[in-house]
Design brief:
By secondary structure, the chain is mostly beta strands. Helix content is 13%, strand content 45%. Strands 4-14-13-24-25-15-26 form a seven-stranded mixed sheet, with no helix packed on it. It has a six-stranded mixed β-barrel with strand order 6-7-12-8-11-10. A six-stranded mixed barrel has the order 17-18-23-19-22-21. β20 and β21 (260-273) form a beta hairpin.
């Protein structure tokens, strides 16, 4: 029997399922009161349709994409596949691969490729893959993608645009208007961003090393597909060694594969990245295999999810230049330091 090809899906789109903790406790840990002030409340059906502002449209070379925000505040965008669509896909900087739902692949009669072993936040799973001849996001087009097939109800969308469709791009998440812009790297500017952090690349991910939580140095991976931030057990142990409390409310994380993994919910104090400083951050601590895959299991590390990213007004991820740019809200405290911090 042929051994399945191994893909790394990494952290793609994890969400919370409360167990011993109540649903309200889980929500409060994932989105703290200070974070909630930066989130536009969704209407009763749980979606927000982005409006295109003149200010954002004026960005030179930017391709403005209409956005829908799902009930757990992740952003989905309309994509076309081989001329058909649009279909709502998550933008997930934590997933190495673009993913399509099995139902949509069947509807489009996409060609089956092979069985593949993928790794999500909750473990490994063998799934089918399909060939996507052409995927269009705004004016950008990506061809020849081999995508794992997962259930739409587990993804929370009809698919995921992963790092294989984002490399070489600069993606702007404007949380002020719930909007995504795919910017022209050649003409985009860093003007207006208070913090510019240069990271290193590993397995397609941008790894940032200039963050701290409660004074503890933490390696950070930006994960726009995750509802909440996920910390490894090394970070949890370090925080407990400093007598941090409230780090052990049991819950479960659900991966886009439908698998679950046990986690401990908590709220850690004094989160800093670059010059930005926030009083607290909600974290789910778990023994996720994705930390080990990236070599981040032995020292404190964090996948920074959407509930934390929404503390900022804007976040731009420049994959080509290996930079992440942050724009702080006016009320957020600043740390006196140089605007540009490179590691």
């Amino acid at each position: 029997m042929k051994k399945p090809t191994q893909f790394a899906l990494l952290l793609a789109a994890a969400s919370l399922l409360p167990s011993a903790a109540t649903a309200n406790d889980a929500k409060n840990a994932a989105v703290t009161s200070s974070e909630a002030s930066n989130i536009a409340a969704p209407p009763s059906d749980g979606t927000i349709i982005a409006e295109v502002t003149d200010e954002t449209q004026a960005a030179k070379g930017a391709d403005i994409v209409e956005v829908i925000v799902d009930p757990v505040y992740r952003m989905t965008v309309p994509v076309n596949i081989d001329g058909a669509g649009p279909y709502n896909f998550l933008i997930d900087t934590g997933s190495e691969r673009t993913v399509i739902s099995s139902s949509l692949a069947g509807q489009l009669d996409l060609e089956f490729v092979e069985r593949a072993l993928i790794q999500s936040v909750a473990g490994n799973k063998v799934v089918d893959t399909a060939y996507i001849p052409d995927l269009s996001l705004g004016r950008q087009s990506y061809g020849g993608l081999i995508a794992p097939l997962l259930k739409a109800e587990d993804i929370g969308a009809e698919g995921i645009v992963g790092l294989d469709g984002l490399q070489g791009q600069r993606i702007l998440f404007d949380f002020r208007v719930n909007q995504i812009a795919i910017e022209d790297v050649a003409t985009s500017s860093n003007k207006g961003y208070e913090i510019v952090v240069t990271g290193r690349r590993r397995s397609g991910q941008l790894i940032l090393t200039n963050a701290t939580i409660s004074g503890i140095p933490v390696t950070v991976v930006i994960d726009t597909g995750a509802q909440t931030s996920i910390g490894n057990r090394a970070l949890q142990r370090k925080l407990r060694s400093r007598r941090a409390k409230g780090l052990g409310d049991p819950t479960e994380l659900t991966a886009v594969t439908g698998q679950t993994i046990n986690a401990d919910l908590g709220i850690a104090s004094d989160f800093q990245v670059g010059r930005a400083r926030f009083s607290q951050i909600g974290i789910a601590f778990a023994d996720s295999p994705t930390f080990k895959s990236l070599g981040l299991d032995r020292k404190p590390a964090l996948f920074l999810g959407m509930s934390a990213l929404r503390k900022f007004d804007r976040v731009a991820i420049d994959f080509k230049a290996r930079r992440v740019l942050f724009d702080l809200p006016s009320h957020a405290p600043r740390i006196a330091a140089e605007h540009r911090i490179a590691f």
